[in-house]
């Protein structure tokens, strides 16, 4: 084997150093947030708890999960995430594949119009008026249909199809009498697992974290996603702690502030934990799909 020179050793050592530093930068906030959610908030605020939990308590999680709205929000968010991601994939994948086919008439015009939407959009008010005119206000479709596809994700998927799927494979299938639909369903999709995983993760994270659209379009609390309930709990606790400053004794104010603080960290963990758990299982496909889909525009 070829001996490693000093330059290579220095380069590798620098890489390990900077990667380790980057790991610490990313890992510390996660550890701190987890520790703060089960620690005494007084110790957190005073800086005595800076890494590992101290004076462990599960009061924050108990108060969060005793709220029935949290469970309603979880079920709604799971539905929005699963249904929304499926709709996104049903729109994005065929659209991207069609734009990747060289024989598509007007392909450049469609791509130009698609790219324009990435720089210019109608804004919140026109979008709200459109959703209202379609009768989607206060329905689940208000959160699913307006975000059925994203131009940037279509571009990434199109690039993946262009750079990964050999044209000769498509021609062989066409010679065998394979229709366009069967070609896409039986040949293209089985070879596209990496980009499907990437798009599922992109769209899934967006649906899981969305709250602004629900804030605009939903009135029925039974349709609220998890993020909207968590925002409501957090805002209400902070407002209560502030309002109690007038005419309340110091002990009551301090207790309310303590409860608001411990609930804040528990809410962050509750909302982020499902995505943190899901990501490692999709990491292999995620990295491959992003790298392949970003090689060439």
Describe the structure.
The chain is an all-alpha fold. The chain is built from 14 helices and no strands. The two termini are 39 Å apart.
Largest sheet: none
Radius of gyration: 25 Å
Anisotropy-based shape: globular
Give the termini separation: 39 Å
Per DSSP E runs of 2 or more residues, the count of β-strands stands at 0
Query: β content, as a range?
Result: under 5%
Q: Averaged pLDDT, please?
A: 82
What is the count of DSSP helices, taking H or I runs of 4+ residues? Answer: 14
Low-confidence stretches: 293-297
- SSE order, one letter for each helix or strand: HHHHHHHHHHHHHH
Pick out its properties:
single chain, 297 residues, mainly alpha, 14 helices, 75% helix, 0% strand, globular, disordered C terminus
Would you kindly provide a brief summary of this structure?
The protein is an all-alpha fold and 297 residues long. The protein contains 14 helices and no strands.
Q: Helix and strand layout, with pairings?
A:
Elements: H1 6-37, H2 41-46, H3 59-65, H4 68-100, H5 107-119, H6 124-133, H7 141-144, H8 151-164, H9 167-175, H10 180-188, H11 193-209, H12 212-217, H13 226-243, H14 250-293
Helix pairs in contact: 1-14, 3-14, 4-8, 4-11, 4-13, 8-14, 11-14, 13-14
């Amino acid at each position: 084997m070829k001996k490693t020179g000093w330059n290579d050793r220095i380069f590798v050592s620098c890489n390990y150093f900077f990667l380790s530093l980057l790991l610490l930068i990313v890992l510390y906030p996660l550890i701190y947030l987890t520790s703060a959610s089960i620690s005494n908030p007084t110790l957190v605020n005073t800086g005595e708890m800076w890494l590992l939990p101290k004076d462990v308590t599960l009061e924050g999680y108990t108060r969060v999960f005793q709220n029935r709205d949290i469970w309603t929000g979880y079920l709604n968010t799971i539905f929005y995430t699963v249904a929304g991601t499926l709709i996104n994939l049903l729109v994005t994948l065929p659209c991207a594949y069609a734009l990747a086919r060289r024989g598509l008439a007007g392909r450049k015009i469609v791509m130009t119009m698609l790219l324009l939407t990435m720089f210019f959009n109608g804004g919140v008010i026109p979008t709200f008026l459109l959703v209202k005119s379609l009768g989607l206000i206060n329905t689940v479709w208000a959160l699913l249909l307006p975000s059925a596809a994203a131009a940037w994700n279509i571009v990434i998927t199109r690039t993946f199809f262009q750079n990964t799927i050999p044209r000769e494979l498509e021609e062989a299938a066409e010679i065998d009498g394979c229709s366009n639909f069967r070609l896409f369903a039986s040949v293209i999709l089985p070879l596209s697992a990496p980009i499907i995983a990437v798009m599922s993760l992109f769209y899934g994270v967006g649906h899981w974290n969305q709250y602004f659209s629900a804030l605009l379009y939903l009135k029925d609390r039974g349709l609220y996603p998890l993020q909207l309930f968590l925002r409501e709990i957090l805002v209400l606790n902070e407002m209560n702690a502030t309002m109690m400053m007038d005419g309340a004794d110091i002990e009551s104010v301090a207790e309310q502030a303590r409860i608001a603080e411990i609930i804040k960290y528990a809410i962050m963990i509750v909302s982020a934990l499902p995505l943190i758990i899901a990501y490692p299982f999709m990491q292999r496909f995620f990295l491959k799909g992003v790298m392949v889909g970003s090689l060439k525009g």
